[in-house]
Task: inverse folding
């Protein structure tokens, strides 16, 4: 890296040196040679800058990058040179406009090195160059070694150990400098050979350079994949596809295959306070089989992928076109002349034999004007969640075509059609038919590498779209999100970049960089990953990227935006941050690590239904998808009675039991008889690890399961009057067992067989809050009515009613002895207010916050000291109050979920774990 920086520095300073001598008597060179003439044909990338001042050192994004030591060193050197210029009035006016070309080219085994090309306008400037090199390197000019090469002098600068620090040549009126003498020689040879200026596609893009642009990037697409490959993960993974073939997946090798994307691109670089922008054109030609030419003859179409995709989208690519038939004709023509042709045709032949249809024609007929593929969840272990969406011409005709394919496949394989279909009822009570599709790699086979990542295992129709997903749960979540309006359009990161994006495009790509950060080990080599992780906080401020290509009169216009936000993506007070890829959906829980009980672990679920287990240092141990949001608490159980612990919980559809490796245990998951309405609770009546699982369902039944997950025949409870939403409770008081729960109409106090044990004389409409056992004084159960009155329910059927304030039916309630006086206090939150009362109903304190609060939780810091925690999701803030209403030191902190407090290590400090608005899990240490 230092070699790169030294060379950039030397060239810029050399220009300054030249101007120092320019005011004196000159001997001018005989002719001007364009800088491009010396650029090697093999260079994958080069940039042209107007000079030193082209880089705005005060730009917020550039300032942010100064936190990276290498970049900071370079910027300081540039500033030092600028100070020299500013101190010399003779050179101030001209140095900033001295053009410089920086090209990257390969030496040896595909190792990239820089070469810089600029102008020298007089012999005096050459003397200035030598003087500055001497000053910077500390190597006397008298030791510079000069030799002849192809009619030009090359000067090699060796240090005292005999190492060649750099080489340069003044060729005509050009100066060529590189740390690799091979590149200097290559540039000299290029001067007398046909070069990029003889390439019609380079000349086409070069003519479009904006007069206002200070920095222009040129990309040679034939060689550009070789540059990218240097940064990518080169490991090979094997996987068997649906055709029974073993596929070898190597990202570095696969990237090298996209050399036919286009010919040349020119992009003007612009700096803004909240983004970096590249705009320009790309030259592509169908006669050279460039992929971009599949859009030839198209007009740009309104981009609406953000209305078709969920808020959780991390990445998407959209192809859109005004002439569908021409697009697919161009696409097939591209594949006919590509290396992938025969392999693609072989796979399509197998698919068409089993679906008994012309797949390309029929799927093409379904499409109206766009095709979208997206990554939603980005787990660390399991397969990432993907979507593949076709915008339909006619949903009725498309459905008929698709159902014929599925029916033909069932007939061909001699299986029932019903085994490939099912009905899903979304959270908005909409019914969708879900189809299992037998060829998950179809998107990439049909459309090429841009869609290779998408897996089409399950499908459904919604409105005018045919949606494929990589998993059934992923498809169900998509349908729920769409029905509830949770689209990408309302995502804050997407909104920042969409404001400056083109409204119409033919190729539209978007990436949420913070979400995709979890894929860094899959994408990049170890050296790049070290840099990313070392400077993670800086890179996370570059939160999103978009790239759009617009076809106009067969010219391809690019617009690339990299969004930057100055607000840190991590609270600097956090001890560590774990990237989940999506916001936290439930309260994180500190759990026992049975392999090392001195250190706790954290288990949590995100909004993409991924469960994550995280160690005490913030490292994600595993991630695993489940069928929906976890309802209630995640319980630890010793299922095998061997000291090894598992996690038991439920979604609306299933009860799960997974081990410490994220793998399902025994007969689990168990499919529930009806949709669950509360979180499962676990009871161990005799403390012998023979568990009972209780859960209430939409059919108004309370189900009891035995240790193995079988319905208990001895539980005889009938049905409730309403819906039970809080967990079933088990209390043992005076050697009697009570199973307790409530709906919106009454409280049920049963025995272990489901029979009524206590008929309470209290007649009130219970709130949705849980029922708590309080043993201070006479043992009693505590809950609230819908309007906020506190009820003590005694085990003899009597009750006491405590008046506090008036609250809405949505209030939340907790009860405990907070101040250590031996009596319970009542804690309420309602909308934006926190209210605390003593047992007599007298208000101890009230705190009004700016927004509605998510939840209230109590935390024990000692036997006599408890704290009250609340979350303001709108402000991404959490607060912690003591019994008098005083905020804990250092609060509020960043966070937008419920939070857990406890010791992650024996003897360690109290830690607080919370999710934030950017899909991170944060850990704070409390003093």
Result:
């Amino acid at each position: 890296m230092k070699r790169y920086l030294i060379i950039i520095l030397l060239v810029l300073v050399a220009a300054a040196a030249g101007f120092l001598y320019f005011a004196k008597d000159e001997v001018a060179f005989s002719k001007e040679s364009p800088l491009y003439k010396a650029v090697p044909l093999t260079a994958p990338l080069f940039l042209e800058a107007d000079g030193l001042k082209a880089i705005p050192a005060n730009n917020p994004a550039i300032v942010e990058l100064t936190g990276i030591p290498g970049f900071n060193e370079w910027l300081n050197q540039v500033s030092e040179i600028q100070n020299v210029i500013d101190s010399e009035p003779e050179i101030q006016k001209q140095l900033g406009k001295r053009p410089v070309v920086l090209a990257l080219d390969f030496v040896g085994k595909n190792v990239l090195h820089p070469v810089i090309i600029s102008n020298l306008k007089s012999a005096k400037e050459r003397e200035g160059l030598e003087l500055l090199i001497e000053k910077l390197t500390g190597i006397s000019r008298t030791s510079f070694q000069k030799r002849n090469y192809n009619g030009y002098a090359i000067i090699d600068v060796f240090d005292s150990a005999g190492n060649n620090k750099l080489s340069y040549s003044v060729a005509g009126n050009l100066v060529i400098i590189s740390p690799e003498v091979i590149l200097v020689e290559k540039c000299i040879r290029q001067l007398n050979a046909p070069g990029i200026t003889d390439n019609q596609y380079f000349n086409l893009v070069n003519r479009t350079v904006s007069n206002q642009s200070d920095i222009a990037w040129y990309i040679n697409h034939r060689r550009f994949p070789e540059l990218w490959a240097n940064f990518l993960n080169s490991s090979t993974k094997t996987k068997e596809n649906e055709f029974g073939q073993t596929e070898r997946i190597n990202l570095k090798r696969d990237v090298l295959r996209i050399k036919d994307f286009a010919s040349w691109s020119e992009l003007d670089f612009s700096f803004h306070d909240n983004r970096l922008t590249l705009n320009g054109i790309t030259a592509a030609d169908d006669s050279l089989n460039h992929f971009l030419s599949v859009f030839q003859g198209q007009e740009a179409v309104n981009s609406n992928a953000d209305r078709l995709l969920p808020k959780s989208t991390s990445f998407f690519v959209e192809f859109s076109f005004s002439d569908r038939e021409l697009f697919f004709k161009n696409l097939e023509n591209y594949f006919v002349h590509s290396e992938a042709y025969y392999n693609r045709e072989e796979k399509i032949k197998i698919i068409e034999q089993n679906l008994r249809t012309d797949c390309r024609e029929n799927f093409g007929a379904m499409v109206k004007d766009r095709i979208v593929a997206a990554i939603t969840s980005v787990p660390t272990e399991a397969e990432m969640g993907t979507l593949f969406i076709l915008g339909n011409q006619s949903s009725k005709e498309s459905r008929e075509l698709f159902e014929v394919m599925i029916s033909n496949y069932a007939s061909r394989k001699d299986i029932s059609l019903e085994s490939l279909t099912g009905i899903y009822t979304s959270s908005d009570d909409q019914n969708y038919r879900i189809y299992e599709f037998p060829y998950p790699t179809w998107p990439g086979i049909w459309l090429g590498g841009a869609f290779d990542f998408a897996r089409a295992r399950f499908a459904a129709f919604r409105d005018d779209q045919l949606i494929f997903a990589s998993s059934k749960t992923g498809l169900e979540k998509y349908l729920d999100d769409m029905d509830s309006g949770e689209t990408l359009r309302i995502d804050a990161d997407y909104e920042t970049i969409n404001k400056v994006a083109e409204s119409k495009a033919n190729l539209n790509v978007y990436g949420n960089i913070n979400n995709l950060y979890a894929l860094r080990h899959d994408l990049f080599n170890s050296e790049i990953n070290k840099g990313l992780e070392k400077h993670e906080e800086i890179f996370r401020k570059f939160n999103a990227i978009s790239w759009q290509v617009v076809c106009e009169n067969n010219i391809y216009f690019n617009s690339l935006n990299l969004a930057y936000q100055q607000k840190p993506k991590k609270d600097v007070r956090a001890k560590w941050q774990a990237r989940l890829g999506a916001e936290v959906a439930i309260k994180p829980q500190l759990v026992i690590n049975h392999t090392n009980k001195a250190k706790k672990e954290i288990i949590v679920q995100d909004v993409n239904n991924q469960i994550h287990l995280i160690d005490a240092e913030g490292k994600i141990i595993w991630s695993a998808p489940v069928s929906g949001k976890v309802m209630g608490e995640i319980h630890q159980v010793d299922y095998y009675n061997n000291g090894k612990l598992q996690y038991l919980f439920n979604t609306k559809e299933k009860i799960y039991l997974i081990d410490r490796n994220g793998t399902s245990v025994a007969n689990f998951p168990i499919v529930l008889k009806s949709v669950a309405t509360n979180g499962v609770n676990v009871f161990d009546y005799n403390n012998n690890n023979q568990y009972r699982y209780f859960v209430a369902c939409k059919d108004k039944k309370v189900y009891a399961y035995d240790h193995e997950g079988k319905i208990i025949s001895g539980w005889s409870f009938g049905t409730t009057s309403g819906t039970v939403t809080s967990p079933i409770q088990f209390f043992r008081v005076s050697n009697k067992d009570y199973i307790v729960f409530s709906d919106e109409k009454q409280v049920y106090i049963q025995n272990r067989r489901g029979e009524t044990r206590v008929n309470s004389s209290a007649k009130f409409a219970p709130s949705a809050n849980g029922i708590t056992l309080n043993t201070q004084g006479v043992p009693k159960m505590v809950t609230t009515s819908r309007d906020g009155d506190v009820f003590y329910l005694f085990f003899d059927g009597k009750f006491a009613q405590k008046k506090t304030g008036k609250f809405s039916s949505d209030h939340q309630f907790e009860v405990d002895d907070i101040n250590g006086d031996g009596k319970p206090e009542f804690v309420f939150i309602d909308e934006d207010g926190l209210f605390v009362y003593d047992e007599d109903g007298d208000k101890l304190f009230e705190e009004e916050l700016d927004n509605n609060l998510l939840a209230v939780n109590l935390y024990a810091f000692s036997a006599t000291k408890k704290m009250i925690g609340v979350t303001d999701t709108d402000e991404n803030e959490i607060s912690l109050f003591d019994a008098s209403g005083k905020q804990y030191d250092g609060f509020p902190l960043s966070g937008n979920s419920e939070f857990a407090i406890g010791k992650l290590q024996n003897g360690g400090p109290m830690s607080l774990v919370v999710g934030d608005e950017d899909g991170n899990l944060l850990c704070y240490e409390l003093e």
Remarks:
- The radius of gyration is 34 Å.
- The CA atoms of residues 188 and 760 lie 98 Å apart.
- Confidence is low (pLDDT under 50) at residues 1-33, 80-96.
- The first strand starts at residue 45 and ends at 49.
